[in-house]
Design goal:
Helices cover about 55% and strands about 20% of the residues. It is an alpha/beta fold. The chain has a single domain, classed as Reverse transcriptase/Diguanylate cyclase domain (Alpha-Beta Plaits, 2-Layer Sandwich), CATH 3.30.70. The strands form 2 sheets. It has a 6-stranded mixed sheet with strand order 1-3-4-2-7-8, with helices on both faces. A two-stranded antiparallel sheet has the order 5-6. Strand 3 and strand 4 form a beta hairpin. The N and C termini lie far apart (about 70 Å).
Length: about 190
């Protein structure tokens, strides 16, 4: 009975394909960790990892190949983060990693390490190695980050910058995404 309850709890909290936390559990755990970090005045950062051209993998090689790529990328990320870091699958090919007691510089170093390790993966699909890359956005603690949703929004925005800059890279924002958008709109108006 106890073993059965543990298995049910695991299934309720983890992504079945990759074994990392599912989105709901990831957000709950991170919100708690952010409260603790704020209370203790400790830095924290979040990585938003998106596998590049993943739809093309599924469309070209099939969903089994896509699953192989997702599992390989997840194992790679899980094997290259600290035990205290928290990883969750928050979308189809999107992952988020919460980094406690980590400033922007440390987060950028880890993000670049993960990007390079993912690029080196080369999972075998239909007997041939497949190049996989990721775009990673980094956001580090700012005053408006009171929940995982706040900081993840900025990390997600930074990830889109990495995509726009050519993919397979790491990007971080100097200002919150809502400030960056305001500055961009003001520049557009000034140019008009």
């Amino acid at each position: 009975m106890l073993e059965s309850n543990e298995k049910l709890r695991y299934l309720a909290n983890h992504d079945q394909l990759t074994g990392v936390l599912n989105a709901r559990t990831f957000y709950e755990v991170c919100d708690h960790m952010i409260c603790v970090a704020r209370r203790d005045s400790k830095p924290f950062s979040v990585l938003f990892v998106d596998l590049d051209h993943f739809k093309k993998v599924n469309d070209t090689y099939g969903h089994d190949a896509g699953d192989t790529v997702l599992r390989a990328a997840t194992e790679c990320m899980s094997g290259n983060i600290r035990e205290c870091d928290v990883i969750g699958r928050v979308g189809g090919e999107e992952f988020s990693v919460y980094l406690p007691e980590t400033d922007n510089e440390g987060a950028m170093v880890l993000a670049e390490k993960l990007r390079a390790k993912i690029e080196d993966l080369m999972p075998v699909i239909n007997g041939k190695p497949l190049r996989v890359t990721a775009s990673i956005g980094v956001a580090s603690e700012m005053p408006h980050h009171v929940s995982i949703a706040d900081i993840q929004r900025d990390a997600d925005h930074a990830m889109y910058h990495a995509k726009q800059e050519g993919r397979n890279r790491v990007s971080s924002l100097d200002a919150p995404c809502y400030v960056e958008q305001t500055i961009s709109m003001e520049r557009s108006i000034a140019v008009s």
